[in-house]
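User: Batch of two.

Assistant: Item 1 of 2:
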Amino acid sequence: MLLDLVQIFIISVICIVFESKAPTPEIKVPIIWILGGPGSGKGTQCEKIVAKYGFTHLSSGDLLRNEVASGSPRGKELTAIMERGELVPMEVVLDLLREAILNNLPNSKGFLIDGYPREKEQGIMFEQKISPVNLVLFFDASEKTLVERLLGRAKTSGRVDDNEETIKKRLHTFNTHNDQVVQQYTEKLKRINAERSTDEIFGEVQTYLDPLVA
């Protein structure tokens, strides 16, 4: 009886390892990375894209928070990592994105990967292990504009990180890493002026998305 249980356990572990290493099936719908500093309005544009095109909006930050809240073994490990003040391993974020894409693949017309990649290496690994990206939309606004927007949001958000000093640090970190991503994907990148009205910005977004879904 004990031997049987041990055999079942070993088989289960092998299956889990095999599944985790199984190649990702070919993804035939568009994958779009959505980049932009905090306050650039990329969340609003994602909502409009989802409404018109039926894409699935995935945020790496939301996926991490949901995994932690689930209380799963992986969520508990993520909690421990963050409590130690360590960075979540790139592979874990990639696994969460891969699982979310595959779970939504049967019913999705495309995927918006919001706020990812944050670094060049993340983008390279995504394309190697999940799928090549079709388009990179970068919602570009000046630091002055982003600071003003975030300070305006701070009046009602209650977020502790919405103060000018912290905002400028966040923007510096974003710009440092985002420049590397932008340089890596010049052929797929569309830089969008995010200092216009929501409708003007979405009008330009549609000119890039329409050919992908035609």
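Item 2 of 2:
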Amino acid sequence: MKIADKLSRIKQFADLEQKNNVITIRNVTPLFNNVLNNVKNEYLKFHTSREPKIRSTFIDSTGEKDANDYAAYLHNSKFIDAFVELKESQELPFCISEEIKEKNNLIECIDDGTLRVIFPKRYLLRTSYFVSNNFSNESFYHMQRQHKIWWMKYGSYPGKYRISDQKSDSKFKFVNIQSTVTDHLFNIESFKLFSLKDCIKDKEVLGNFLSKIPNHKKEVLPDVIKTVVDLNGATMALLFDAVNLTDYYTAFHRRIAPYQLSIVCNGSKEYSEELTDLARYVQLLIMETEPRIQVLNELKHKSYDEDKRVDKLFNVYDTIGIPYNLVLDDNSLDDGFLQLRNRNTTLTEKVHLSDVTNYLIKVFTSG
């Protein structure tokens, strides 16, 4: 994909320039931030839902002393406090997820020919799984494949995602999940496996990490599987996928789209006020029943008696990736039926007002 060919749609999300394998992001729009937050929420939900037995804690490590060294973050006070709280009530395995918003974008990796996307700031999700060293290698390989499948699910091109060759040094093993973007490989998530006994020399700090394992009385030092996602870069990779699938719409997965649903009024001027009130009611009904469904209801886009304007509005919503449009017309006031339009097919189906929330919940929570 050539960025220049898709720039008109990408500009709705980000202002960027590309030179060879380096893409520099000057600025992002609220639409991009909406997608990013949805990716973050889905990713964190994935961590907790796929392994119910693994207890997870989420902390904000922004501002804590940090370093690019693979294990320096284990000395952070917030991290140690979270670990101590977990180990007192939980046997291995368990995990800690951290949100880190860095003021500067410090590139850790060398220029190895992969695509580099540079943002003014970095926004990281870092998760550390603490596992018994008897199962750490098995868990390391299993987790890579689970996460690859997750990225394949939310990307528009499942076949673009791969696990890089494993590399290692004296202290850790590491791999990346990669996607193909603009003819370059792009690292979207990194994995490292290491043992605490190899990276913490301070006995006092080391004592904080002694943990219980099932069916054993003696506490042990666990191994760590650390995953890191740069949310800005990963969101940009998903955007490149979404704009490249088709020229007709931006193919975001319904759960990470900037909005899951738009409401469009398409009736006569005579009933414009009533339709506007109905649109507000439907929006509130959906948001109160299922807050995860983000609704765009721009009443300034009223399109009464102008089918061509409605089509133009659909084009706008398609290009920003909204998967469904809910259309209200004069008949909606009489019989309570609304038209639900699918972005991918442009086909519509009738949904009654009394069923609309349950129907949409099934659409957005299935699969």
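The longest strand covers residues 184-195.
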